[in-house]
Amino acid sequence: MKKAEKSFTVNGRGHLAIGGVDTLELAGQFGTPLYVFDEEAIRRTCRRYREALGRSYGEGGLALYASKAFSCKEIYRIVGSEGLGADVVSAGELYTALEAGFVAAKIYYHGNNKTDDELLFAMEKGVGAIVVDNLPELRRLAKLRQRMDRDQDVLLRIKPGIDAHTHNYIRTGQIDSKFGFALETGEALEAVRETLGTEGVRLRGLHCHIGSQIFDTQPFVDAARVMARFMGEIRRSCGATLTTLNLGGGFGVQYIEGDDPVPFEETLAEVAVALRETCKEEGIPQPFVLVEPGRSIVNSACATLYTVGARKEIPGVRTYVSVDGGMTDNPRYALYQAQYEAVVANRAGEERNEHVTLAGKCCESGDLLGEDMPLQHCDSGDILAVLCTGAYNFSMASGYNRIRRPAVVMVKDGLARLVVRRETLEDIVRCDI
Ligand code: LLP
Asked: What is the rounded CA–CA span in Å between residue 268 and residue 277?
């Protein structure tokens, strides 16, 4: 096991341990499937973000945890206690954060299609800012704001014209996105003008997000420059000095050997240099800088434990190993052919000398966790761990086939505690009339 070495180790019994706790004991105590997070690893990464931003901006920068990656009360408590803010994208995420006692002023509310109810809820609770995506939303927001006794801070979501989702990323185009205002068509400047002229709404700054699981620094640097230049243009043509720049998330992580993302510290340092230079060239003051990492905070801190069930060797074709979860707790292979590393937890010290297709238990052929995955030999009853599943697994879990959502545990200081209990059969019919 190469990646996330600090969280995943092989203990003296040859078992996989997470945060020093034997996964077989965890499976025995809490059942499977089970998401297991190493709390200390999450906290370490939060501190790395704080330190990296502190080095570049002093008090003038803040990381917001993009909670779409993994949202439950406990994660808001953890990242909040490490001094981070949060990015939420629905009433559900906002409610969860508030229920966990998260400071509303450090929450940024996103979304390309917020409902009136969501806008009102966010304003009533006093979120730090609403990130406005389109003009009809701005107009609805202004109207709803009249029911409040204070102005609402907003950022505008801008498409900076950078598509970082390709190997050779594209700097122009990317108008074809459902998110935000396009720069190159003049739409963004128009939106700035209208926002500045809208009563009750205070335009604090801009936001962009260029994609997710980005391994290189350059797209981030280019986005920062584009945004700072636009802030200069706003100052020249509208006379407004914006004070906040949110550069979004997207910092890549390692899932399998061969994934080689640039450490986010390096990217953030280069972004800071580019930003300082561009602000100087544009004659604008350095804005307060926000970043919104999601995946990079939680992904490598977690593994999902399963119990192996049926094993089917189809001669000359492949070997299927089925587990007691699947696309309902991790839809990322089915959706994106995302690659994961798996380990037989009770043989973690042994060589992975087989190649198998890991299947889930849904009534669907595409319900796979991976194909041609190197794995130790395993049979029914063995515990299998899929590594680096902290981001966009639990948060994207579904109730397909009325399969119950797994429990989530945190391990810390050698102890495990339940933070989300397993769904029960009663939960399955809770909303049914
Ligand atoms: N900020 C905004 C506005 C975003 O849309 C996102 C992710 C983030 C921050 C956090 O990005 P991160 O640091 O996690 O890359 N379901 C997909 C990922 C979708 C990401 C959506 N937006 C997956 O499983 O790969």
From this structure: 14
Q: Which of 46, 208, 362, 363 is catalytic?
A: 363
pLDDT at 170: 64
Give the distance between the most distant pair of CA atoms in the chain. 72
Locate all alpha helices (DSSP H) within 58-200, ordered by sequence: 73-81, 91-99, 116-125, 135-145, 187-196
pLDDT at 314: 96
DSSP 256: S
**Considering only CA atoms, which of 312, 233, 317 is closest in space to residue 279?**
233
Q: Is position 363 annotated as part of the catalytic site?
A: yes
User: Is residue 164 pLDDT above 90, yes or no?
Assistant: no
CA distance 274 to 259: 26
pTM of the predicted model over 0.90 = yes
pLDDT of residue 229: 98
Identify whether the C-beta of residue 142 lies closer than 8 Å to the C-beta of residue 194: no
CB 70 within 8 A of CB 78: no
pLDDT given at position 173: 45
Which domains are seen in the chain, by residue range?
8-38+300-428 (2.40.37.10), 110-293 (3.20.20.10)
Q: Is 405 in the pocket of ligand 1 (CB under 6 A)?
A: no
Q: Determine the residue type at 333.
A: Y
From CA 376, how far away is CA 308, in angstroms rounded? 12
Which pLDDT belongs to residue 285? 98
**What is the end-to-end Cα distance of the chain in Å, rounded?**
48
249 lines ligand 1 (CB under 6 A): yes
Instruction: Name the residue at shortest CA distance from atom 8 of ligand 1.
Output: 249
